[in-house]
Each structure stands twice: as C-alpha cells, then as structure tokens.
Amino acid sequence: MTTFRNRVAVLHGVNFDVLDRRDAAVYGGISLSELERRISDWAHELKLEPIFFQTNGEGEFCEYLHRSIDLADSIIVNAGAWTHYSRAIADALELARLPTVEVHLSDVESRDDWRKLSVFDGLVLAKVSGKGPDGYREALELLARELGAGS
Ligand code: DQA
Q1: Does ligand 1 come within 6 angstroms of the Cβ of 24?
Q2: What are the residues whose beta carbons fall under 8 Å from the beta carbon of 3, sequence distance 6 or more?
C-alpha cells in the first residue's frame, strides 16, 4: 500500500484576520480569504491538500501545532510578529516534527532590525520572504518535493 502524504497546514498568526486593512504598500491590500483562495488553487495544482488556520491567540496557535501531527503532513507558517519573539511557538513547532516552510509576505530582512530575527531558525526547511502571495507558491513547491506529492 502506498501512503500518500499531501496535507499542508497553512498557519497564519496574529493580525492576519485584518490583512486587507494593513499597510497596502507592505502587504499588498489582499484579504486573508483571497490569499487562502490563491494558496488553495496552487496547492491543488500540486496535488496537495491545504488546511487553513488563523488565530490572534498565541496559546491557541501552540495548541493547533500540538494537534498538527494528526491533521497534517507538513506546515507553512506565517506567524506574523510572533515570528520574531515567541519561543513558545518555536517550542511547539519543534514538537510538531513536520517539514515546515516559513513564509513572509514582506521582505523582513529589509525592514526594522527586530524583524530580522526569526525564532524558527533551524526548525524550518526554508524561509521565503518578500515575494508577496507568490512566496506561498514557492513554499508549496518545496513541500510537494519534500513529500513526494504527485509522484
Ligand atoms: C509578516 C512580517 C512580520 O514582521 C509582521 O509582523 C507581520 C507580517 C509578513 O508576512 O510579512 O505581521 O510576517
């Protein structure tokens, strides 16, 4: 029997529920539901099954990561500002033990100094930053290759 591992949990953290109200020059003015629609289309083209989750609660984000081993085969994480300081989320991500790609819509390297630090360093396969929504497509491609999806 072949096991087909193709589920990708796409996790958005704090302030992504109001993505369309955030600085359009930085985040493109796109809503979270439009972003998720695009990710879903790209995922299906790659024979991946996306599962979406967003919360503004750090504890809830950790609890989702605790459950992710039963829900998904891989993770795309954009934890927003938590990326830069939440050791609790980094510990929960480590616990999840799933191939993970970190994505940022904006180029975190060329903004404020505090955004250059990611607590997920060393826990993720790759970090894609500054490519807008297309960054998620790149992340999906990396995970499809990692999971051997569609092959
Ligand atoms: C972000 C970058 C973070 O620094 C910021 O706090 C966000 C969004 C991005 O997608 O560019 O909330 O993760």
Answers
A1: no
A2: none
